Amino acid sequence: MYDIISIGSATFDVFIKSKKFPLDKMMVGEKIEAEEFLCASGGGGSNTAAGFSRMGLNTACIARFGDDLFGQFVRADLEKESFDKKYLLQKKGDVTDYSTILVNPDGSRIILVSRGKTRIEQSDFPWEALKETKYLYIASLEGNVDLLEKVVNLAIEQSVKVILNPGSRELKEKEKLTKIFPKLFGLILNREEADSLGLKVGPAFAEASAGRPEMVIITSGRQGAKLFSKEKNLLVESFQVKAIDETGAGDAFSSGFVSGLVKGWNLEKSLKLGMADGCSVVTKIGAKPGLLNESECKDWLSKNLRIEQIN
């Protein structure tokens, strides 16, 4: 039995960082020297699976990518991680998703995305996996909301707790997506995503929780995060770190926070772990190099961090 299965994308990412940025001041035709360059696997599914497994959780990942050159690289990179690879769907003829990430000196970035033909379809999905886990974390399914709904329904039938962090394509399907929310154990969004859905959460969450998940987490980057639940409403600040690359911060926060929940920690400690993982990731280039493992958590958790009740 797995502690958690992560579902989402597995991508080939190229990171380019230059002191000649910021990007909004680049001139057409200009040749720019890059000081840092990294090729790595990425994507919400593989990033969070790596994060969960580094936290000591028995983890599997469901993600689809191709057998092309980029897909071969992704497979080799993911083999370095300790999560179970049995549900990775590497299909002949598929074109692996590709991203180029241009990173500013302050860690902010622009991501150029080329979607391959690697969307998980109902015919691909390993349905038996839903009987083999306690928790399910779902990242982007590249707009396949019909699959998302079926996965959530069948997971609940198996008494699996589902946490959702929808991608941009799911968010465009607002009407269909929001119908799924009441079935969720947890929903994680950033501030812009919550606004795009018109999702109004606040201190009165417990009194008006009909039709909502058991908890909603709204992240705001360097401004921290807020949690609204039937139990309590909390604000957590961010650790103060020097950002090198903000890519993967959201995935890392989710990895840490959800890992705390799976371990049975209270909401405050789980939020602190999520913030620690998110802040650790931004101190290195790439989405996976800064992910914390269990032995590194103690130092972060010993630091002071403001977590307060929202009234």
Structure description:
With 311 residues, this protein is α/β, with parallel strands linked by helices. The chain has a single domain, classed as 3-Layer(aba) Sandwich (UDP-N-acetylmuramoyl-L-alanine:D-glutamate ligase), CATH 3.40.1190. The chain is 28% helix and 24% strand. The chain has helices spanning 44-54, 69-78, 145-157, 168-171, 174-178, 191-197, 249-262, 267-281, 294-301, and strands spanning 2-7, 11-17, 36-42, 59-66, 88-91, 98-103, 109-114, 133-138, 161-164, 186-190, 215-219, 225-229, 233-236, 307-309. The strands form two sheets. Strands 5-4-1-8-9-10-11-12-13-14 form a ten-stranded mixed sheet, sandwiched between helices. It has a four-stranded mixed sheet with strand order 3-2-6-7. The longest helix is centred in the last third of the chain and has 15 residues, at 267-281.
Which descriptors apply to this entry?
single chain; 311 residues; alpha/beta; UDP-N-acetylmuramoyl-L-alanine:D-glutamate ligase; ten-stranded mixed beta sheet; four-stranded mixed beta sheet; 9 helices; 28% helix; globular
Could you give me the name of the CATH homologous superfamily? Ribokinase
> In which order are the strands of the major sheet placed?
5-4-1-8-9-10-11-12-13-14
One letter per element, helices H and strands E, the order comes to: EEEHEHEEEEHEHHEHEEEHHHE
Mean pLDDT: 93
CATH class: Alpha Beta
CA(first)-CA(last) distance? 39 Å
The share of residues in helices is 25-40%
Number of strands: 14
- Name the CATH architecture: 3-Layer(aba) Sandwich
CATH-defined fold name: UDP-N-acetylmuramoyl-L-alanine:D-glutamate ligase
Poorly predicted tracts of residues: none
